[in-house]
Write a structure and sequence with these properties.
By secondary structure, the protein is an all-alpha fold. Helices cover 78% and strands 0% of the residues.
Length: 422
């Protein structure tokens, strides 16, 4: 049975129209010609059709190979099979492509090497993948095509990133970007993928100013050439970079843009998180009253979005505590809202912050012994960013309780922290 007939039988069995299978990427008439055996589908089209028909490409390989296909298409087929996780079959197809190519003069040798490197990366054979990409890069450099060279260096960066060699990954992403940056001459989708990976790697290294500039290039490219791309995540990352460098005003500006973009998407979970982050940034600038409306809006969305509200509730509590020297009435609502079930679903940092705030509340209620005990409990599970805040509350509480052993415990923890940071 021909490949076209196989595809038609599957489509009919799935009760799908031709339009549902190919539109809008390919024309209905094109699929009709394929099904009638008049045209042979490209591997790109076949991959798209297989995805719409909910069948694996592997199942179609015998029909694809039955009448023979050109070497470039065999290489694309091997890559597509790799994306399905069919590595052995992909390598087998690639070897057949190589044998056929060698008989025809070896015109596609470099494409074969690049595809093999891609498959080895998929198999997590990273040393072999990097070695192959290195061979390809030398050939591509001689060819002089900036886009092809950039794609190889980008792939080398991905290998190094998976190996947790982030400085090396950053180096290759930088070189790849240098190849295409002068005129944005690459397809926008590749440039955006490269910039995303470069920026994410820089953030992992802690180079936040450079990461921010890379993400800002992403936004510029989306605005000028790829308007369909969703900018929300990039705006959030720029805000995070600005927050890390203490530029809270800029972080607020980008979060406001992200919120505006998210409000039109219907993605409530993402909008809830953005509103919470926006409220946090505004509170940290000393404007708790202005932060509260954003946080209340986030809390209203949390239920319908199915997100755990503990982070938002903690931020609301911090705003109320920042606005008063006493214990505001709203704090009792916060204490009642965060139940054991909610805390069980919270992250470690969210639970720690809850205990920290609870310790501060107990201290303001002059329950100094309980405040110290709660701070000590929080410290045991604390992330580094909260340690000093917890110890400050613990020190105040133990001094107010005239608890010398508590004071000594705080001093001991501060010494440990000082030693660990040296």
């Amino acid at each position: 049975m021909s490949l076209g007939r196989v595809l038609k039988n599957i489509r009919v069995a799935r009760d799908l129209s031709r339009e549902e299978v190919v539109a809008p990427k390919y024309s209905i008439s094109h699929l009709a010609a394929v099904e009638q055996g008049v045209k042979r589908p490209s591997i790109r089209m076949l991959t798209h059709v297989a995805d719409r028909l909910r069948v694996s490409l592997e199942m179609l390989v015998p029909d694809v190979m039955e009448n023979g296909i050109p070497v470039p298409e065999m290489i694309r087929l091997a890559r597509s099979l790799c994306r399905e996780g069919k590595f052995d079959l992909a390598l087998d197809i690639l070897q057949q492509a190589n044998d056929k190519d060698e008989n025809d003069g070896g015109q596609y040798r470099v494409d074969h090497l690049e595809a093999e490197a891609y498959i080895e990366f998929g198999r997590n054979n990273l040393d072999r993948s990097l070695d192959l990409y290195s061979q390809v890069s030398k050939i591509r450099e001689r060819g002089g095509n900036p886009l092809l060279i950039a794609q190889i260096y980008h792939s080398m960066g991905l290998v190094e990133r998976r190996r947790d060699r982030l400085q090396r990954a950053s180096h290759w992403f930088f070189i790849a970007w240098e190849k295409i940056a002068p005129e944005y001459s690459s397809p926008p989708t590749f440039a955006l993928e490269l910039l995303h990976n470069y920026g994410d790697t820089l953030m992992e290294i802690g180079e936040y100013p450079t990461a921010r500039s890379i993400y800002e290039r992403c936004i510029a490219l989306m605005t000028s050439e790829h308007k369909a791309q969703d900018p929300i995540e990039v705006l959030r990352r720029i805000a995070e970079c600005a927050t890390k460098t203490g530029d809270l005003g800029e972080a607020e500006k980008y979060l406001l843009r992200a919120v505006k973009e998210a409000q039109g998407t219907g993605r409530r979970k993402g909008l809830t998180r953005l509103l919470t982050k926006l409220g946090t940034v505004i509170r940290r600038q000393g404007r708790p009253e202005q932060a509260l409306p954003h946080l209340v809006a986030a809390l209203d969305l949390a239920g319908s979005a199915g997100t755990n509200p503990v982070s938002t509730l903690n931020e609301i509590a911090q705003c109320h505590l920042a606005a008063s020297d006493d214990v505001p009435e709203e704090i009792e609502q916060w204490e009642q809202s965060i139940t054991g079930e909610i805390l069980e679903r919270a992250t470690e940092e969210e639970r720690t912050l809850f205990l920290l705030l609870k310790s501060e509340v107990l201290k303001r209620r002059e329950q100094y012994g309980e405040s110290f005990k709660t701070a000590r409990e929080a410290f045991c599970d604390a992330s580094g960013s909260l340690n000093l805040r917890i110890l400050a509350i613990a020190l105040d509480a133990s001094q107010l309780a005239c608890d010398s052993s508590g004071v000594q415990w705080v001093v001991d923890q501060l010494r440990c922290l000082s030693t660990s940071t040296q």
